[in-house]
């Protein structure tokens, strides 16, 4: 499972980039008002997502859920544990528990030790954890098929090129 570095969507210099600002010099001033071009850089955009959708992420090390109502069992965490997000920000882990996903096949997939992180925009199923727990994920033709002991569990589809 996984991918080769040449196919990685994360740029090679991902960790090397630092925040930068572009400075524009004023060439001329007329009537006391400078003619300048103004540029804005957005560091973070918080969009409302569909908190019932789940995304399989083969690089995620934990299952993560934003919606506390999806947990069938739950324990609050107050030890200050944080999750390092892909956008270089951190978010507080509020709890941990069990989530049961209902697959389109009618079968259920039980995820244990799921982290509750309200700030995450997409619920994540860790592909590597599924694999370590005996599940088989096959990615082919813009979809993935999930099975356990050669028994079909469910499938998912490529969405927005991810």
What does this structure look like?
There is one protein chain. The chain is mostly beta strands and 162 residues long. The protein has a domain at 49-157: Cathepsin D, subunit A, domain 1 (Beta Barrel), CATH 2.40.70. It is built from one helix and 13 strands; from the N terminus they run E-E-E-E-E-E-E-E-E-E-H-E-E-E. The strands form five sheets. Strands 4-9-8-5 form a four-stranded mixed beta sheet, with no helix packed on it. It has a three-stranded antiparallel beta sheet with strand order 11-12-13. It is globular and about 55 Å long. The model is unreliable at 40-50 (pLDDT under 50). It comes from Cucumis melo var. makuwa (Oriental melon).
Features:
mainly beta; 4-stranded mixed beta sheet; 3-stranded antiparallel beta sheet; 13 strands; 4% helix
Widest sheet: strand order?
Answer: 4-9-8-5
Measured by DSSP, the beta-strand proportion falls in 35-45%
- SSE sequence, one letter per element: EEEEEEEEEEHEEE
Morphology = globular
Number of strands: 13
Mean of all residue-level pLDDT scores? 76
Rg from alpha-carbon coordinates: 21 Å
CATH second-level architecture of the domain at 49-157: Beta Barrel
CATH overall fold name of the domain at 49-157:
Cathepsin D, subunit A, domain 1
Topology:
Elements: E1 29-30, E2 33-34, E3 54-57, E4 64-65, E5 71-76, E6 82-84, E7 90-92, E8 95-102, E9 108-116, E10 123-126, H1 127-132, E11 135-140, E12 143-148, E13 151-157
Parallel strand pairs: 3-10, 4-9
Antiparallel strand pairs: 1-2, 5-8, 6-7, 8-9, 11-12, 12-13
Q: Short summary of the structure?
A:
The chain is mainly beta. The protein contains one helix and 13 strands. It has a domain at 49-157: Cathepsin D, subunit A, domain 1 (Beta Barrel).
């Amino acid at each position: 499972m996984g991918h080769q570095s040449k196919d990685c969507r994360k740029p090679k210099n991902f960790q090397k980039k630092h925040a930068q600002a572009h400075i524009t010099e004023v060439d001329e001033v007329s009537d006391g008002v400078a003619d300048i071009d103004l540029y804005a850089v957005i560091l973070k955009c918080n969009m409302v997502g569909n908190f019932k959708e789940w995304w399989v992420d083969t690089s995620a090390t934990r299952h993560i859920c934003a919606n506390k109502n999806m947990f069938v069992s739950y324990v609050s965490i107050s030890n200050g544990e944080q999750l390092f997000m892909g956008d270089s920000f951190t978010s507080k882990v509020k709890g941990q528990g069990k989530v049961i996903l209902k697959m389109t096949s009618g079968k259920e997939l039980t995820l244990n030790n799921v982290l509750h992180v309200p700030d995450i925009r997409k619920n994540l199923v860790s592909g590597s954890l599924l694999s370590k727990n005996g599940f088989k994920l096959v990615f082919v033709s813009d979809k993935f098929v999930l099975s356990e002991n050669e028994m079909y569990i469910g499938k998912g589809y490529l969405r927005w090129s991810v």
